[in-house]
Amino acid sequence: MADSSYADKSLSNRYQPRPQLPSSFPDVLKEYAREVLRAQPTDILAWSADYFQKLALEEDPHAVVNPSSGVSHQPVSAPSSGPDPERDEIAQRLLRAFAQLDASRTGSLSAQVVKQVLMKQLGLSECQALYILTSEYTNLQGDDTLAYERFAKDAALPVQFFIKSHRDFSLEVPDGVTVHGMTRDDVEQEFLQACHEADSEGTGQLSVVAYRSLVKHAPFHLTPRDIRLLSLECSNEYGAVSYEDEIVIMFDRLVLAEAFDSFEANL
């Protein structure tokens, strides 16, 4: 009987209507994960309670007042992570390295130069550097440059995380893997057809602008990170992209972008 009762309760719970989460919930959860990673509190439960109580106060200043009990809770100060000398030093190292490479003092560098700094000066792997460069906080301009002073501050935290955790991503793609429900052949054939249609003269090349537009409006669904990675890593010479060369490695890059998003979603 006990087993039957337990099974009944389990089935009942399983098929209960799921509560509707607010549309902003994914963003709230992502921001919370980033703040935890930034603060690295010793007492995560107390820190989290403070964090969400402050968030509730920002959304509704009266949210923590209980009229029925007459008890009014005092606003809780924002959880403070305190200074982080190690992270500050990473930001300064990045800034110094970028400034040395900025001969014309524009305050901007190409993404590929920034990638090399992350790898050679900070010791990150290529995948770790690409994760940072394709993240939302990396504000790449249309000419693949970024303002490095702001980037140095924003990138210091993930750089610190990768250095400490040694978390990395694999460039190896096992057989049988699909991405967005598509096999390697599916991706290559769909994109090759789109490129041939865009390449009316049959040169085997597209301008960088045309190629990136094609990526952005791909014949199959691509995530924002897919688009950023494919656009950032496309090899171009004199403003032209040999698209058949890109298509050969496109599937691998899409798998990598999916790994980046999965990692970020589970932070």
UniProtKB/TrEMBL annotation:
Subcellular localization(s) per the UniProt record: Cell projection, Cilium, Flagellum
Gene3D superfamilies: cAMP-dependent protein kinase regulatory subunit, dimerization-anchoring domain (1.20.890.10), EF-hand (1.10.238.10)
Keywords: Cell projection, Cilium, Flagellum
InterPro entries, A to Z: cAMP_dep_PK_reg_su_I/II_a/b, EF-hand-dom_pair
Region (Disordered): 1-24, 64-87
Record domain RIIa: where: 23-60
Taxonomic superkingdom: Eukaryota
GO cellular component terms given for this protein: motile cilium
Biased composition (Polar residues): 66-80
Family matches, as Pfam families: RIIa
Keyword Ribosomal protein: no
Family as reported in the entry's similarity comment: Belongs to the ropporin family.
PANTHER family in the record: RIIA DOMAIN-CONTAINING PROTEIN, ROPPORIN-1-LIKE PROTEIN
Name listed for the protein in its UniProt record: RIIa domain-containing protein
